[in-house]
Write a structure and sequence with these properties.
- There is one protein chain.
- Helices cover 36% and strands 15% of the residues.
- By secondary structure, it is α/β, with parallel strands linked by helices.
- It folds into two domains: 247 residues, Type I PLP-dependent aspartate aminotransferase-like (Major domain) (Aspartate Aminotransferase, domain 2), CATH 3.40.640.10; 133 residues, Aspartate Aminotransferase, domain 1.
- The strands form two sheets. It has a seven-stranded mixed beta sheet, with helices on both faces.
- The radius of gyration is 21 Å and the shape is globular.
- It binds pyridoxal-5'-phosphate.
- The site of pyridoxal-5'-phosphate (PLP) has 14 residues, from helix 4.
Length: 388
C-alpha cells in the first residue's frame, strides 16, 4: 500500500485498482457481462451474488477511482446525475444542502424539482466568500461545491471551506468533474465525498455516460453502498470497461487539453472582440492563486464574453472545427451557451443574479492542434462583427 501511495498518478491511472486479469494474464480487466452468479451451495457464494450489488468489472473501476481520489471506497453509477442523486439520498426531510453559485444546471434541477418534494432544502451560496461560515448552521447538513465552478470558473478554497464545515459536523461534497483526480484531489483537501460526471474527462471520448462517487471514510462507504444497491442506478459492465480504458490516458489527454486551453485563453484575451475571459490559469483571474495552491493546473475549460460589437449567436454558428454541443472533457473542442443549454434549467432571474447571461460562452478546449482551434475562433469572430 505504501508503494502504491508513492508511485506517480500517471502510473496509478494505468495500473491502479485491479490491474488486468490474474486468472488468464489478460492485460485488461474482463467485461463480466452477467447479471447473476452461480452459488457454491446454499449459504456459500464466490463473493458475488447479483450484479446490482457487485460486478467484478464495475468493482475494478470503483477500486481505481477510490485509489485515484485517495478515498476509501468508490461507486460507479449510470450517469453523473445518478451519482449526485445517490449521494443526496444520504439526507432526509428537513435537512438543508448549500450549493455553490453556478453549479451544473442539472444539480440545481434535481434539488429544486425532485428533492424539494421530499422536504430536502437547498440554498445557493457564494462559497468563494469567507462569510459563508455564517451559513454553516442547523439544519445545514452538507455543502456541495464545484471548483472551478460551472460555467464561470469561480474557484473555491476547498481546504478552507471543508475545514469550516468539518468543525460543525457538516459534510463537504465536491463535484470534481472539471478537474479530475489528475489535477485536484478534494479528499486530500478535507472533502468527505467526491462526485464525477465521468462522462467528461474521465471517459474522455464523448462516447459514454457515467458517474462516480468516492467517500473519505468507511461509514459513508457503507451507507453509499447500501444506497447504490437499494436504488440501483449502477454502471453496466461494458461501460465500466470503457471508463477504465478512458482513465488510462487521462494524464496525456489532460496535459494537452490544458496546454491548448492556456493558449486559447491567452489568444482570446488579446482579441478585440472578447470582453472577458474566465479561466483560472490567467494570472489576473480572481481564482488564480487558490487554484495554483490546491490543484495541479487550471484544466481545459474556459468561458468568455464577447464585446457588444460582436454577435455571439453569429459567432457560435460560424464555427466549423469547434462543435456546438452540450458536454465537455472529450478529446474534441466543444462550445456551448450555458444560459440556453447546460444551465437552462436554472430560472432566468437566478441566472442573471449569478451572472450566467446569454452573452456567456463556454468552451471545452479539445486536443486538436491549438493553432487550428484559434484559427476557427478567428474566422468565426470575423464573421460575427456587427456592421457599425
Ligand atoms: C460538473 C457536472 N456535474 C455533473 C454533471 C452531470 O453528469 P451526467 O451528464 O453524466 O449525468 C455534469 C454534466 O454536464 C457536469 O458538467
Amino acid at each position: 500500500m505504501l508503494l502504491e501511495r508513492m508511485r506517480g498518478i500517471e502510473t496509478t491511472l494505468l495500473h491502479g485498482g485491479i490491474d488486468g486479469d490474474s486468472r488468464t494474464g489478460a492485460v485488461n480487466v474482463p467485461i463480466y457481462q452477467t447479471s447473476t452468479y452461480k452459488q457454491i451451495r446454499l449459504g456459500e457464494h464466490t463473493g458475488y451474488e447479483y450484479s446490482r450489488t457487485g460486478n467484478p468489472t464495475r468493482e475494478a473501476l470503483e477500486k481505481l477511482i477510490a485509489e485515484l481520489e485517495r478515498g476509501t471506497r468508490g461507486f460507479a453509477f449510470a450517469s453523473g446525475m445518478a451519482a449526485t442523486t445517490a449521494v443526496l439520498t444520504l439526507f432526509k426531510t428537513g435537512d438543508k444542502v448549500l450549493i455553490s453559485n453556478n453549479v451544473y444546471g442539472g444539480t440545481f434541477r434535481v434539488l429544486d424539482k425532485i428533492f424539494s418534494n421530499f422536504g430536502l432544502e437547498y440554498e445557493f451560496v457564494d462559497t468563494t466568500n469567507p462569510l459563508i461560515e455564517n451559513k454553516l448552521a442547523s439544519p445545514v447538513k452538507a455543502l456541495l461545491i464545484e471548483s472551478p465552478a460551472n460555467p464561470l470558473m469561480t474557484v473555491t478554497d476547498i481546504a478552507a471551506v471543508a475545514g469550516m464545515a468539518k468543525r460543525r459536523g457538516i459534510l463537504t461534497i465536491v463535484d470534481n468533474t472539471f478537474m479530475s483526480p489528475y489535477l485536484q484531489r478534494p479528499i486530500e483537501l478535507g472533502a468527505d465525498i467526491v462526485l464525477h460526471s465521468a462522462t467528461k474527462y474521465l471517459g474522455g471520448h464523448s462516447d459514454l455516460i457515467a458517474g462516480l462517487a468516492v467517500v473519505a471514510d468507511e461509514i459513508l462507504g457503507e451507507k453509499l453502498h447500501f444506497i447504490q444497491n437499494a436504488t440501483g442506478g449502477i454502471l453496466q459492465p461494458f461501460d465500466s470497461f470503457l471508463l477504465i480504458r478512458g482513465i488510462k490516458t487521462l494524464a496525456v489527454r489532460l496535459d494537452r487539453h490544458q496546454e491548448n486551453a492556456r493558449y486559447v485563453a491567452d489568444w482570446l484575451q488579446k482579441h478585440p472582440g472578447v470582453a472577458r475571459v474566465y479561466y483560472p490559469g490567467l494570472p489576473d483571474d480572481p481564482g488564480y492563486e487558490i487554484q495554483k495552491r490546491q490543484a495541479d493546473g487550471p484544466g481545459g475549460m474556459l468561458s468568455f464574453e464577447l464585446n457588444d460589437g460582436w454577435d455571439h449567436e453569429a459567432f457560435i454558428n460560424g464555427l466549423s472545427l469547434v462543435t456546438l454541443a452540450e458536454s465537455l472533457g472529450g478529446v474534441e473542442s466543444l462550445i456551448c451557451q450555458p444560459s440556453t443549454m447546460t444551465h437552462a434549467s436554472i430560472p432566468e432571474d437566478i441566472r442573471e443574479k449569478i451572472h450566467i447571461t446569454e452573452k456567456l460562452i463556454r468552451l471545452s478546449v479539445g486536443i486538436e492542434n491549438k493553432h487550428d482551434i484559434a484559427a476557427d475562433l478567428q474566422q468565426a469572430l470575423e464573421g460575427a462583427r456587427r456592421a457599425s
